[in-house]
Amino acid sequence: MSAASFVRLGRLLGLAAGLGVLGPPAPAQAVRPAISQIRVERIASARLGETREAWVSLPDRYDETADRYPVLYMLDGEINFNSGVIGGVRQAAFLGEMPEFIVVGVVNTDRSKDIFPEVVTYRDGTKDGGRADAFLDFVGEELVPQVEKAYRTEPLRVLYGTSNTGFTAVYALFRNPRLAGVVIAASATLSVPIFHANRDAWIRDFKGGDKRLILIMGENDLPTVLSQNGALKEQCDLLTPAGLSCRLAVLRGGGHVPGNSLVEGLRLAFEGWTFATPRTGSKRSTNNEEGH
79, 121, 143, 166: least CB-packed within 10 angstroms? Predict the structure, then answer.
């Protein structure tokens, strides 16, 4: 989905009174994307009581080598898992700006339930949230082990979320830091009561080891997104939790969830990353081995 489409969606749905979170979007139909090297993983989730699907994009040379790869877990799979986004990641890796990734798009079934750990009530009386904890347990305890069993993975994991699932990704960092070594949140909607009440304590008491939080926004993003993400960055800088680094980028001319959010977030996360051996070699270094 383009940045302009996200902006139009935000305007149509409006912001919840006093919350600043986006209202429930129209259901997206999960149609398998036309990208080469796609495999589909289906998990009968005990945590969620339903079968969930994930789309897996493998590096171009995956079947030609015995290499292992870090894994990028992408929330909102049916929106974000597309040839434009994945192509940008592949091109940046080809240029040596970041490692090659196995990309896993987590497909939604009932997005509105999975985004928040608590139930949020909107102005019109509709509700979202309530099972983010169970959803994140599904990702960490069911999806990740299946991916690591089926594919040649390295320990480093990246978690990427956009808009409301950007909040989910940030929440995951504080709830279970072992889920991912890098969290990238694009236009995260952080005006959620549980986050307001606990943000500073979560940052101050963070004991998750060396983790990287990357916040991405558009220059013309929603006002609450700009202010709340800026406040999160500021508090991380003020409270200086051991091991947790936070970087923020405002993309020029972008609206809500700029189209290049993931690539720019990865560039920030892996700034200074270099290949351990020439690019034609079979061994690489991510300069970061955490994630389990």
Answer: 121
